[in-house]
Amino acid sequence: MTTPPLVSPFGGQPPPPQQQQQPQQAQAARDVNTASLCRIGQETVQDIVLRTMEIFQLLRNMQLPNGVTYHPNTHQDRLGKLQEHLRMLSVLFRKLRLVYDKCNENCAGMDPIPPEQLIPFVEDDSSKHEDRSAAQSRPATEERREILEVNKKLKQKNQQLKQIMDQLRNLIWEINSMLAVRS
Q1: Which of 26, 7, 9, 30 is nearest to 18 (CA)?
Q2: Distance from CA of residue 46 to its chain's centroid?
Q3: DSSP letter (8 states) at residue 124
Q4: pLDDT tens digits along 165-181
Q5: What are phi and psi of 87, to 5 degrees?
Q6: Which end of the chain is more exposed for a tag (fewer CB within 10 A), N or C?
Q7: Which long-range contacts (CB under 8 A, 24 or more apart) does 60-66 make?
Q8: SS3 of 6, please?
Q9: pLDDT score for 9
Q10: Which residue in 95, 98, 96, 107 sits closest to 34, CA to CA?
Q11: How far apart are CA 64 and CA 140, in angstroms?
C-alpha cells in the first residue's frame, strides 16, 4: 500500500482525502467485470451456505424450554448469535441480488448463445454416410459388412468357449465331490 505524497505536484497543499478516494473508487468500479462479479457471487453463495449451516448448528444445540432448568444468560447468548446470523444472512442475500442484477445489466447487450452450441456434438453414423460420395461409400459399406461378419463369428466362438469352460467347471466340481466322498 502506498502513502499519499505530503506535497502535491501542483500546489504545495496535499489534496483532501475525498479527492483521493474518488479516483480509486472509479478505478475499482472499472476493474469489476462480469467474470469477477460471478466470482463474487459464487463466494457470496458459499457464505450463505456456511451461515445457513451455522444457523442449523445453533438450532440443533438449543434446548427447548420443556420444564428443564436452563440458564437465561446462555439462552440469551445463543438467541443473540442466532439473530446475528439471520441478519448476516439477510445482508448476504441482498448482496447476491445486487451482484445478480449487475451481471444481468452487463450481459443485457450480449446475444445469448444456445446451450446446444456450447456442447460438442458427435455425429452419428447415418450423417457421416450421407456426406460421402457414392464411390467412397461402396468400399466402406463392404468393409463394414466384413467387420460385422467377423464380430458375429467372434461372438459365436466366445459363446462356445464359455460353454466349454462351464462344462470343465462342472466336471471339476464332480471330481472334487467324488474325492471328498471317498476320503
Answers
A1: 26
A2: 12
A3: P
A4: 999 999 999 999 999 88
A5: -65, -45
A6: N
A7: none
A8: coil
A9: 42
A10: 107
A11: 77
- Are 99 and 41 within 8 A, CB to CB? yes
Continuous H helices in 132-182: 134-182
151-170 confidence digits (pLDDT tens)? 999 999 999 999 999 999 99
Asked if residue 103 lies in contact with residue 41, where contact means CB atoms within 8 angstroms, the answer is yes
Give 25-65 as a 3 state SS string.
HHHHHHHCCHHHHHHHHHHHHHHHHHHHHHHHHHHHHCCCC
Half-sphere exposure of 95 (CA within 13 A, CB side): 18
Closest-CA residue to 125 (of 148, 103, 108): 148
